[in-house]
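Thread: "does anyone have the structure for this chain?"

Original post by V.I.:
We have the sequence but no experimental structure in hand. Need at least a predicted one for the grant figures.
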Amino acid sequence: MDHQSFLPAFSTPPKEYSPVPIWWWSGERLDPQRLRWQLERFAEGGVYNLIVLNLAPTSPLYGSDA
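Reply from O.Q.:
Generated one for you, tokens below.
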């Protein structure tokens, strides 16, 4: 294959090759409408893959009275 055959693949790559940002979630309550809105904004920007990183504590915080 020559470089001309690769050009279309790089100008419009498949969705599985979109950027994969880390989406920080700190444990706040999820609102389905807001979540849908955020996911739509990602898709409009060409982002179809996400890594959700949960930052919510699963045990008492260090130094707390718990």
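V.I.: this helps a lot. The mean pLDDT is 86.
O.Q.: and DSSP finds two helices and two strands in the chain.
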